[in-house]
Amino acid sequence: PLQRPPAVAASRLLLPIVAEEQQLLETVLLNTVSVVCGETGSGKTTQVPGMLYEAGFGSPGSDNPGMIAVTQPRRVAAMSTAQRVSYELALPPPLVAHAVRYDQTTAPETRIKFVTDGVLLRELASDFLLERYSVVIVDEAHERTLGTDVLVGVLSRVVKLRERRFVEGTGKPLRLIIMSATLRISDFTSNTVLFPTPPPLIHVPARQHPVTVHFSRRTAPDYVAEAVRKVERIHTRLPGGGVLVFLTGQREIELVCKRLERRWGRKEMERRRRASLAAGDDAPVAVSARLGDVEAEEVDLGERGDEIAADEDGDLGEDVNSDDEYNVEDEEGDEKPSETDAFDVPMHILPLYSLLPGDKQMRVFQDPPADARLIVVATNVAETSLTIPAIRYVVDSGRAKERKYDISSGIQSYQVSWESKASAAQRAGRAGRTGPGHCYRLYSSAVFENHFEPFAQPEILRMPIEGVVLQMKSMNIDAVVNFPFPTPPDRMALRKAESLLVHLGALEPPSPGNKDNALSGRITELGKAMALFPVAPRFAKMLVAGKQHGCLPYVIAIVAGLSVGDPFLREDVIGQKDDDGAREDEDMDDELANIKNEDLRAKEERKRRRKAFFDSQAAYAALGNGTSDIFRILAVVGAYEYEGGTASFCAKHFVRPKAMEEMRKLRAQITAIVRANFGDIVPPFAPRLDPPSEVQLKALRQLLTAGFVDHVAVRKDVAYPASATGAKYASCRGVAYRALGVDEDVFVHPSSVLFHGLPPEYLLFLEVVRTSKPYIKTLTVVN
Ligand code: ADP
Ligand code: MG
């Protein structure tokens, strides 16, 4: 029997899922696979694991003694939901625990285990029947991440095998529960390759309050400025209630927060009040809208707010209001007294994105100060996996940043594009959790109708898949083409993945003449060893191959560094990240920088920070004499640990503390895997890492060359002497390179240690990323 904290016991009864408890348990007990579908916030994630636990799942000696697993696509979600459920059920860790790539709190006593889908996939490689579990809940299946899709495919088979064992009397069954927010579940329910008989669907009726959707009359290209404007208007003219703003990424979010803070932050409001008191003005009064008992509908947001524009059609199933084209003049300068000058409710502004440290992310769940309005500026993290309380207004930019990957060239890009209609509906829904709400869309209904896809593309169609292919092979799924994917990947993507794995030695090469075999290569011993590591196959190969010269601790640090990703805060210091002119950050905040002096001081400060940034970059580039971005990462890991891994080190040297911490955890974890599987070829993990010797550096360079032979770029005038102009080079800026498999010129990314030096003839690169043009990143000179 569970002892929920009293506050939880009361409030959970209000969650829609609780009314479905009986039906849910019956369905789950009678079926090996069930699908639960319900609006975000209906209580799926926090309540279903507890219901199963109370029904005996996870209790030793019961019919279902195995653990309850709950998978999440994101690490943050796995950790925060574990924490929440542990608190709600009063089952402290390790009874309710989490396991993610960098961290785990599990123990033999664990009953409910929150994991990322990647972690469970890796467990499947060593225990294909998942014998330690009685039920697996695949949560947030609508997100259609690569891991989730593969997991559902594998589990559909595992469930069958366990069922057979059960019928034969040699084991207990395993149940699979797929949980999803939006209704795109047909890929799971009507896919007969996946589930020959469609699994039963438990639909949780939404107890959602009505949300009035307002389209913009026109679609402003500068949605960041538009978002700021909209929030200000909501804040000054509409009744109380939190505002949730959806943007695409960290930089935009920080910018919007900064702009709002400068004008509406508590500090600024107080400064203004003091200034106006000192000037002898009357004490400012708050506008009635917020204090009075007014409904948003009653407030005329704009001068022409009640006028419905011609291009607005009301048949979207939702109440469509024309958006207001307000006067924006009152935004400029402080000289004109306006409504907003007299308004004295501060904003409580919180950013929310995945790179934000965990404790800062959790701030959105805390009550905002009573006298302030909560403003959360978020990426689509806030779309389905985190439910922020007390949001009444949503401002939706309509955009999302997506990682795209071109299968034939391998070029990646992060593109800001229109979100899907499903996402737009999700975002709007966030406003109706606690009462009727409003969603302001920063785009027109015509754009919505004509340019928004119904659903986002599953990740498997836009990501490299060699990692999951290797994992499947390590589970002895040889014929990946026949695998029951919810959405099958492109054939060419499969073939590419297999040929890379053959090339790395992880798969047996196809026998000549046997065409089919090209897609069913068997895993080699080397491949099996590679699959043990929670990193990309190319990196795993470096680990398995990197045993000579006492190099392994360095190889581990490099692999950990590359897997976690660039720790440098270049973007924050230099401004525009991908501009190879490395031009001055065109301060988009100028419109708000009202005091000239402050502006100048800020410029000076930026200059100083840029210089400090470049100085510290130069110091790290010294390892390997400025010939490798990878050695720069190694150098920063070494320096960070040498100084005891402190936050002040990170601040001083412009690196992300979270990234550095993750690197250390991943180093520890890889070291443990190496020792467990290959014996004492590395010493037990110690954070400290002395600089490598010349001999070791040389060995490391050879290892990198071996790992990246297919990722070599050649300077264009060397590759095509005819194209040489004979011009002298001053730096890498604008110098074209050619890379295998890429049909266009590529360029050295300005973040590289090589960028300001003379362009080398041959370079190894980790990836090609397209921004304004295709850039090669994370480079090492080959000589
Ligand atoms: P679903 O999975 O169906 O989207 P959840 O179970 O995540 O729904 O959320 C149910 C309720 O629990 C929501 O009202 C949400 O705000 C609340 N909740 C979830 N996580 C936390 C947390 N860490 N702290 C406080 N409240 C939370
Ligand atoms: Mg959920």
UniProtKB/TrEMBL annotation:
GO cellular component: nucleolus; ribonucleoprotein complex
Compositionally biased spans, kind Acidic residues: 308-334
Catalytic activity annotation: ATP + H2O = ADP + phosphate + H(+)
Broadest EC class assigned to this enzyme: hydrolase
GO molecular function annotation: ATP binding; hydrolase activity; RNA binding; RNA helicase activity
Domain Helicase ATP-binding, chain residue ranges per copy: 25-201
Keywords: ATP-binding, Helicase, Hydrolase, Nucleotide-binding
Highest rank taxon of the organism: Eukaryota
Entry EC no(s): 3.6.4.13
UniProt GO BP: maturation of SSU-rRNA from tricistronic rRNA transcript (SSU-rRNA, 5.8S rRNA, LSU-rRNA)
Region (Disordered): 296-341
Location of the Helicase C-terminal domain: 230-476
Keyword Metal-binding attributed: no
Entry keyword Transcription regulation: no
Entry's family note: Belongs to the DEAD box helicase family. DEAH subfamily.
Protein name: RNA helicase
Lineage of the organism: Eukaryota, Fungi, Dikarya, Basidiomycota, Agaricomycotina
Parent-protein residues present: 325 to 1107 of 1182
